[in-house]
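Notebook, bench 3.
Goal today: get a predicted structure for Uroporphyrinogen decarboxylase from Pseudoalteromonas denitrificans DSM 6059 so we can plan the truncation constructs. The sequence was checked against the plasmid map this morning, with no discrepancies at the termini. Length recorded as 355 residues. Pasting the sequence as submitted so the record is complete.
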Amino acid sequence: MSELKNDRYLRALLKQPVDATPVWMMRQAGRYLPEYRALRAEAGDFMSLCKNAEFACEVTLQPLRRYPLDAAILFSDILTIPDAMGLGLYFETGEGPKFERTIECMSDVVNLPIPDPEQELGYVMNAVRTIRRELKGEVPLIGFSGSPWTLATYMIEGGSSKTFGKIKKMAFAEPKMLHLLLDKLADSVILYLNAQIKAGAQSVMIFDTWGGILTPRDYKAFSLAYMDKIVKGLVRENDGRKVPVTLFTKNGGMWIEDIAATGCDAVALDWTIDIADAKRRIGDKVALQGNMDPAMLHASPERIREEVKTILDGFGDGGTGHVFNLGHGITPDVTPENAGVFINSVHELSKPYHS
């Protein structure tokens, strides 16, 4: 088993005792850091950053040089799988991801290949191996994927959407087609995450960004069922250590009992749910990750500290089984200093909960 100097994050996910609450930030490697913007300019565009293992490694390590974070997260994108399926991912400035080709009919779904993680997605595995080597056991590395439902929304809509009209039309008018697509995506995600684990990811997370747009019944049928399939297909131990799995559905607070029932190790919470309520409902079954509103990072240092304390109080004493995070990704307009206040406050203010 490779030694980790700081395994607080992995221990918390497995509900083991820790000396302080571990903290990392969604999108911690990203546009709020001037050093990231400089490297992206050098790379030319976002996908060139992702596809160059040295660049992806450098971007992953940048926030760790600034802050005492308890985990690194692979620098990549949730849409690598549909890109590897041949849909032609590209990014338009200010508009987010788009696809050159979309899924419109049954033959489109039938003809979709399931990508080989070491071939079409080999650049991601190269990045994982490079990052693990360069981390030198300082902190664990998180691998990740988008959920099948979230990937399908982009593949069918052709980009982000306000109404999700095309995928909902398919869900309700041609459910067989959508279920075939989601099943293929679940199989692809299982292969992809298991390859990341084999390459060195010590924990994995599934981002279900758009599960929260569904009714409870449709969420279970079109989103959760496929995340459940993935959880059951993942390698849960590697290198002599458990590999914890975290599931995150944005706006999924009403379904956390069902999410916890998949057998995942942790449920990540957005900021629209009270962590004390979440702990009462599922905290004896799984660890919780979250859940400060990312916009709070615009507040004064005193207000940020106050919010951190409120969330720590909400989770309560004993403190085991909590990974502190934002309820979604840090936004590009946050000052790096305020992110530092947040991270330091979590470590400092959480120690009494663990004594």
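The first helix runs from residue 8 to 13. The first strand starts at residue 72 and ends at 73.
Flagging this for group meeting.
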